[in-house]
Amino acid sequence: MKKLISLTTFFTLLALTSKQALAVCPVCTIAVGVGLGISRWLGIDDTVTGVWVGGLIVSSGLWMGNWIISKKWKVPYPKLLSVIFLYVFTIVPLWIAKTIGHPKNTLWGIDKILLGVIAGSIAFIVSVWLDQTLRKRNNGQVFIYYQKVILPLLLLTVASFTFYLIT
């Protein structure tokens, strides 16, 4: 329980201190969802599956936050609240169903799915930052077509492959 509280505190502080992210496209969100479905169907380790769950949570949360902004609803921090909302409504049911928290399904003392979610979330956030950074260096233009889709998929794949090798 201490680890869960520590992780929740870490992500809350991370979210509160991070800069505002730009919109994330629906194509990227769908691609992350497809990756999640395929990895579970193939029986890949829960850590790898968790990477895609984390990416999907952040992607969907940013997408939902942008949708709230487009509706001009007066919601404070719509992107942050959307991401937190999706974490809660993803992780809590998995915890209640005992999908998360099984003592024999851990890596480095952390539940494999939760560890994957953390890694996937970080990979996705880094990919959004990297896309913004590359655009700034190129006068607001992308370096390659679909850069906003390629970067998250690339970083999530690298994280998945790393956990595949570890587990």
Give a brief outline of the structure.
The protein contains 6 helices and 2 strands, in the order ααααββαα.
Describe the structure.
The chain has 6 helices and 2 strands, in the order H-H-H-H-E-E-H-H. It is globular. Helix 2 runs antiparallel to helix 3 and helix 3 runs antiparallel to helix 6. Strands 1-2 form a two-stranded antiparallel sheet. By secondary structure, the protein is mainly α. Helices cover 73% and strands 2% of the residues.
List keywords for this structure.
167 residues, two-stranded antiparallel sheet, globular
Contiguous helical run count? 6
- Percent helix, as a range, is over 70%
Number of domains: 1
Low-confidence stretches: 20-24
Query: Rg, please?
Result: 16 Å
Q: Which structural category do the helix and sheet elements fall into?
A: mainly alpha
Mean pLDDT equals 79
List the helices and strands and how they pair.
Elements: H1 2-17, H2 26-41, H3 46-70, H4 78-96, E1 106-107, E2 110-111, H5 112-137, H6 147-166
Antiparallel strand pairs: 1-2
Helix pairs in contact: 2-3, 2-6, 3-4, 3-5, 3-6, 5-6
